[in-house]
Amino acid sequence: MTDQDRAFLGEIRRELVAALEELKFWLRIMNEHAGLIRNGLDPTEERLFREADRFFMELAPLRAEAETLIYTTPGDRIADLIERSLRIVSKLRDFKRNLTELIKECRILTILPADLIDHIRREADFFIGILHFVRGEPTPTKETIGIPDARERALTVPRLLISDMPERVEEIALEETLFWLRQNMEHADVLALYFRPGIQNQLVQITRSHAARLRDVLNEALEVNKHRRGLDKLLRRSQRVVMDWNAFLRQLFEALLHCSIPNGQINIFPILDDHMAREAEYYLEVLRLVGQVRRPQGMPGHEHWHPI
Ligand SMILES: [Fe+2]
Ligand SMILES: [Fe+2]
């Protein structure tokens, strides 16, 4: 084996380990999405219930398998799990897309809003993009993952590979920020709908104020995207706002576990609170990794930058 071969194989290994980290996070998320759909359909929607349940049951062992694999697991086993995950998550993504349309057209009965299903469809596309990145295949367009005015391909870089791409770190940071700020803002918008009127008004107010702050930073991110300046300031602000939002979710989850909020429960499954907190933490981890990369122009600090 030549040095070049060894370097090449080392690179593949890094990519597979990075993919494994993503599988551990995302397969749990996808499993929970399937459960959310299943439990949110009207009891008369038997066929869709069974379909959602099938996804739930198929994703559970994949998720368990990802959790048992470690970084020394042979590469072909990880590659095989990627392959199987891609197959089922692509089907789940299509299911979510169809469901969004069915709800919009009022052709099925459910308590789930179409926007929420489209939200989790976007997350499936983001995850699929990460797996395609690892396999060297085309990633989805930015539009597909909800980043407006951009028909170009998304980067969807696995977190552990960010440090390998210092020359693209600004682009990665902006894409992740645009994606996750929108997702977090929608979480806050949705959560505010599920408190009990009269008894939990204060929680509605707090949640709405987080939604407003997230919306504000998202607008700033869209401006940065347009003018290609002000990234550092944006990232600092975004980190602060998402950290506050995450702290609120964590506190609320504790309160839900102990039934210590007014009236004991809210009108949403407690696991969804934890789910939203984990998604906020994923983005905070991305920001931490971005901050660790030494940028050639001496970032952080320079306010003008150009994507490569
Ligand atoms: Fe989610
Ligand atoms: Fe989400």
UniProtKB/TrEMBL annotation:
On the tree of life, the source organism's domain of life is: Bacteria
By its UniProt entry, which InterPro entries does this protein fall under?
A: CotB-like
One matching Pfam family is DUF2935
- Protein name, please? DUF2935 domain-containing protein
Q: Which organism is it from?
A: Neomoorella thermoacetica
